[in-house]
Write a structure and sequence with these properties.
single chain, 5% strand
Amino acid sequence: LLHQVQSLYLRKMVVGESRDHLAAQLCRRKQKHGYPIPTIIQRTPTDERIRQALQYRSLPHASHVLTRIYESTDPTGLGDRSDLQIEHIFPQNPTRSWSPDGTRVWSNFSEADRAKYREILSTIGNLTLLEQPLNIRAANKPFPKKTQYYLGSAIPANLKLAKLPSWDLASISDRTENLTKCFLDIWQRPMVE
C-alpha cells in the first residue's frame, strides 16, 4: 500500500499535480469510503502522460528519482553518498563558448536552437548525480571538457555519459527515453484490485 501511494504521489508530481491536492483527495475519500486507493488509482497519470511530462517538464525530486534509478540499474548501488549533487549536463548558464561537441559553440546557435536546449534544461535526460567536487569543477564547461569529470565519478551512469561523442538534442532525447523506461519500471501505475 505504501509503495502504491508513493508511486501515485511521484507520478502526479511529475505531471504537475500538487501533493496538497493528492493529500486532500486521500483525506476526503478516506472519510467517505475508508481507504480510497482504488478510486484514486483510477486517476493516476498513465504511462504515456508520464513519458510526455518527463520529456518536457522539470523533474521534481530529481535527486531522489535519479538515486533510485541509478540504484536499480547498478547492483552495487550508490552507497551512502551525501556528496552527490544534481548536475545539469547542458549547463544552467552556458557560456558563449559552451559546446555540445567541441566544434559548434553556443554563441553561434540560432535562437530557435537555444530555446530547444533551454526547454530540456531540467528534464530527466539532462540531469545526473555527480560528486560535489567534480560538479563544482565541471560547472558550465563545454560537454567534451565535462567528460573528464564524469570519468572521475564513481557512478556508472556518468561513465556512460563520458563515452558519448556529443551532448546534442538527440543524445538528450535518447537518455530521456532510457531513464523514462527505468522510471516507469520503478514507479509503476498502481493496479486496482
